[in-house]
Amino acid sequence: MKIRPYLEADKTALIEILRSNTPDYFALEEEHDFNEYLDNAIESYFVAELDGKIVGCAGINYSTDKSIGILSWGMVHSDFHGRKIGKALLDYRISYLKSIPEVTKISVRTSQLVYKFFEKNGFQLIEIKHDFWAKGIDMYYMIYIE
Fold first, then answer.
1. 135 falls in which pLDDT band (50, 70, 90)?
2. Is residue 92 within a helix (H) or strand (E), and if so which, with residue range?
3. Is 56 helix (H, G, I), strand (E, B) or coil?
4. CA–CA dist 106, 143 (Å, integer)
5. Per the structure, how many domains does the chain have?
6. Residue pair 90/58 in contact by the 8 Å Cβ criterion
7. Residue 60 belongs to what domain range?
8. Which CATH number does the domain housing residue 67 bear?
9. pLDDT for 74-106, tens place per residue?
10. Beta strands at 105-110 and 68-76: parallel, antiparallel or unpaired
11. Shortest CA distance to 72 belongs to which of 84, 58, 62?
């Protein structure tokens, strides 16, 4: 597997990855938000390729003062769940952030559907907001604890 920076030409494949996870992990209305993110809000974004096919993606945004690395829009195509691609993308982003001296904290906002993945990989639950992403999809705010 290869992890590399996102290119605009990857967008169609990334939308397909999101759709493969809708409605199980994302609400239908989140596709618009993801499109907006890809077009206007990317700071650091990566794709995972397996045998030349894009199978996952994951990003990082930063607080205004650059002290917090915020994990964003991480997902793996549903056909490739369970192959440790999500773990590889998570480890890659954590390592990437640890190499930036200004970053002193790593956070993620996820859902009740995936928070256990982050919990078993060193994140601590700080806050829950019900129906945050969409009806029935709560927001779990978590901080990375080494």
1. confident
2. helix 85-98
3. strand
4. 6
5. 1
6. yes
7. 2-144
8. 3.40.630.30
9. 999 999 999 999 999 999 999 999 999 999 999
10. parallel
11. 58
Bridge partners of 62, per DSSP, are: 69
pLDDT tens for each residue of 27-80: 999 999 999 999 999 999 999 999 999 999 999 999 999 999 999 999 999 999
Whether 77 contacts 57, CB under 8 Å: no
Structure tokens at 59: 């990003």
pLDDT of residue 106: 98
Q: Which residues 6+ apart lie within 8 Å of 96 measured at CB?
A: 44, 60
Q: Do 144 and 105 form a contact (C-beta atoms < 8 A)?
A: yes
Q: How far apart are CA 42 and CA 56, in angstroms?
A: 16
pLDDT, residue 22, reads 95
Rounded CA separation 120/26 (Å) = 21
